Amino acid sequence: MDNLTSISLFILQGAVISLKIYVVTFIFAIPLGMLCAVGKLTKFAPLKWLLEVYTWLFRGTPLLLQLFFVYFGLPFIGVRFTAEIAAYITFIINYGAYFTEIFRAGIQSIDKGQYEAAKALGMNYKLTMRRIIIPQAVKVILPPTGNEAVNLIKDTALCSAITLADILRNAKSMVSSHASVEGYFIAAILYLIMTFIIINVFKYIERRFTYYN
Amino acid sequence: MGEIIRVENLHKSFHSLHVLKGINFKVNKGEIVSVIGPSGSGKSTLLRCLNHLEVADKGSISFEGNYIAKSDTTGKAVYKSNKEVLAICSNLGMVFQNFNLFPHKSVLQNIMEAPIMVKGKSKEEAEAKAVELLDKVGLLEKKDAYPNQLSGGQKQRVAIARALAMEPEIMLFDEPTSALDPELIGEVLQVIKQLAEERMTMIIVTHEMSFAREISDRVIFMDDGQIVVDGVPDDIFVNPEHPRIKTFLNKVL
pTM for this structure? Predict the structure, then answer.
């Protein structure tokens, strides 16, 4: 029993970096995705083209490769980050690309008539987006955003590959040092608890948007 | 009486489809003008050009003498800046076939939105006006409802109140009853009739022939992108000389 407690505590320490990556990614990737989504919907072709390349590049290659590139690859051209900073940068840019596509699709799903009604009432583009389009798009993008929120907690485990002592890496080292399988069970339980919380937070938010259809 | 809208030699194409082929007309203050004609004749496109929901290719559009678009020497329509056009067009209220209410806002919020955000009115002032307008269209008890809780006829009455809240100089109706179940058409026409009695200037694109005949000072008959007849209702409904009007009326009456 003593053994199990010490294993658990050690793995739990790993949750600190997992959660840090989670929170930092969410805080920065969401605004990044919003800006890029609005950028993709402008008529300015070079910007659209640039953002198209961005989302293709980061959705089209493995996140693990991106992590390796930033942490192990960039030092060869003289750019060095700590493992933690490398993880933040990679996760934010990677998830920003997914959020860009989710938000773009959400905004585009709003009926053209809404823009016309706003314009006929004298509302300019900025006001129309802020007051009419984006509030409605939020409802549309909540379910796919919730999906990404769940994926992200699991994806944080990839940071163990660039030396960070997260849940998975600590679990693995406990399994090796104690020559027993419990470490993986404990890690799985931790992930399940976190995803359970996230799923329910999103359920709660989605319910708050059911006041209209 | 003062002129509100003047349209000169208006042309509009969608790709290779020439929808408006040189439209000329004007509307004076207090006039009620209906636009009728077969589907695809360009009625809605004409109306949508007036408040810049469609961009005309050629010709001029002016509101109270201010040009929104003015034709240059080649005839091409040259628009003022978006900001100026938006400011002028906010004097034109628009009612759509599909209502286009804001689904995430309550009835009251739908009506108060533009007066507060565009005209900078206080919340109290906007709410008082909204309540007054809802009372006028007979929907005061629905003020806290959301659009999805309303029938089509009620939605359209809210949409009319929303447009009126901006205190427009002229109201444009784009087939306001075409999306409604037959039993709901009357309540919407009743509201429009009430506006007519108050001499609100209106342009109404409609398929309701008897309504157009009853309410209008002038009726414009459009076919194939052109105005065929612009006259008093009797010119069209009683003594239609033009064969195209006869054919059309035989189909719809």
Answer: 0.88
Mutate to test the interface with A, among B91, B96, B101, B113 (most CBs of A within 10 A): B113
Chain B residues in contact with A122 (beta carbon < 8 A)? 86-87, 89-90, 114, 118-119, 166
A117–B96 CB contact, under 8 Å: yes
Ordered structural domains, chain A, with CATH: 2-212 (1.10.3720.10)
Nearest CA-CA partner of A120 in B46, B55, B121, B168 = B168
**Residue whose C-alpha is closest to residue A28's, from A87, A85, A93:** A93
- Tell me whether A116 touches chain B (CB under 8 Å): yes
Q: Give CA–CA dist B122/B218, Å, rounded.
A: 38
Write the DSSP assignment of chain A as a string of letters: -HHHHHHHHHHHHHHHHHHHHHHHHHHHHHHHHHHHHHHHTSS-HHHHHHHHHHHHHHHHS-HHHHHHIIIIIGGGGT----HHHHHHHHHHHHHHHHHHHHHHHHHHTS-HHHHHHHHHTT--HHHIIIIIIHHHHHHHHHHHHHHHHHHHHHHGGGGGGGT---HHHHHHHHHHHHTSTHHHHHHHHHHHHHHHHHHHHHHHHHHHTTT--
Contacts with A48 (C-beta within 8 Å, 6 or more apart), sequence order? A39, A40, A42
Residue B240 has pLDDT above 90, yes or no: no
Backbone CA torsion sign across A46, A47, A50, A56: negative
Q: Which two tokens stand for residue A28?
A: 């920065």
Nearest alpha-carbon partner for B164 in B188, B197, B196, B129 = B129
- The whole-number pLDDT of residue B235 equals 87
A102-116: pLDDT as tens digits: 999 999 999 999 999
The nearest CA of chain A is from the CA of B174 a distance in Å of 12
CA–CA gap between residue A59 and residue A46 (Å, rounded): 20
